[in-house]
Amino acid sequence: METRANYIAEKIRHFEEGFGHLVYADGLLACAQIKASKSDYDFNPTVLRGPLEFANSPEDLAEFRAYLSIIKQSGKKPLRERFIITGQHWITGDIQIDADGKVQVLFLDSMGLEYPVTSMHINTADIINEFSNVFPDASIYFSKTRRQASGPGCSVFALDDVRHLFTVEKYLPSQYTGLFSYLAAQVGSSGNMAEPYRERKLANGGTVHCIPIPLSLMRTTLSSRLYTTYIPQRSASETSQAVSKRGELLSAHSAPSYFQEEQGKRINKRLQFALQKFTQHTRRFLEITSATDVDRKIMDHTLEGFRQRMGVPVPTVDAKQCYYAKLIDAFRRYEDRTFKWRSEASIRLVSDVQEMMADNETEEKIHQKILEYIKNDRFRCGAKSKLVGFLFDAGVLAPTLIQIQKGGFFSQRKFSYNASTAAMMEEERKPKKK
Predict the structure, then answer these.
(1) For the chain, which residues make up each domain, given as ranges?
(2) DSSP 227-245
(3) For the segment 317-356, what is each residue's pLDDT rounded down to a tens digit?
């Protein structure tokens, strides 16, 4: 019983810690929980690892590239897919390909365009560029209105957005045939002075249409501008349309009821309520679902789960590419696990190793670099143990195990991060046959 309680507590920890603590694994868990609760439609978004906070390498968007490649290889038409990209800044997307092969995509970024250009915006721009490079003739739409005021919260916006992207078309005015019909109608429109249409040009010459998004996706806007500025500028057909299954209207009259005074400002509490619901429902999901089934349901929302659903075979890679992929995966898992206390040592190690990878250094030299950081005791004990555990689990540090053990850097208790690591250690301790 205690072990089960500890399992649930560990799984739910980041949700309970609040805004700014959710990581890739939490996104997968939240999507698995939502899918398990839906019986009237198939909730099947894909959660992708995005740019790390302490790294900026070509590998940062590797999963998104692979995701787009799978869509292209599948050749499926018509197609409708939603996704979340996690990492430094979370965003959500909705892709549609019709029977004639016309590609359209909506990128939802809670920061919008109405703020100074930051690294977050640069990451979003990189993601949009990646999409345009794969689908150069696509119609690309971007949510221009800033819904997130400041600080953390993008992960909850993204999870809430992807949940509502599966039902948004129920809450559009009747003149639109779907979400992308609504978005296309906003292009070039000058009627909304609060959220005027804008265009952004991409490096490859493509155009991003920066447009207002449906009111049902605006509910969580933190600023009081939601009801003082944005809603009054929307058409009567939109403000008279329900935005939820409860028949709720989002009007200048009703919206203020969700706002509370906080540090001298009126703040919308809908996003906080959304996080509380995610936490409660995820805890309940973990309580009634076996650990094996949780892992299986989570798999549905991974890149590999998406590949299987689309029927696209795994591409063959040479041994060196495979090693690099495993190494990057180990660092990403380490980042997810140690989200609250990344050290300067871990930042330098990731940076150094990724530079070596870009320079096509040998595995032996990369091993030496990793060992150098470990032996020099630049990591606090817990961080060192977790990092090495993930590197062993990824199968990229096994050749150096004996060197580490002879050096006495880890006790067996500290080093045995999980069962697979412990098994690997036991195998290495066995006498070698001559």
Answers:
(1) 2-298, 319-429
(2) IIIIHHHS-HHHHTSB-ST
(3) 666 666 666 666 676 666 665 544 445 666 677 677 777 8
